[in-house]
Specification:
single chain; mainly alpha; 1 helix; elongated; Alpha-fetoprotein
Length: 21
């Protein structure tokens, strides 16, 4: 679950850096 969430967050960051992670 954690890996999936991290992957999703990273993927979103690549598209839109709104989280700043």
């Amino acid at each position: 679950f954690l890996i999936f969430l991290l992957n999703f967050t990273e993927s979103r960051t690549l598209h839109r850096n709104e989280y700043g992670i």
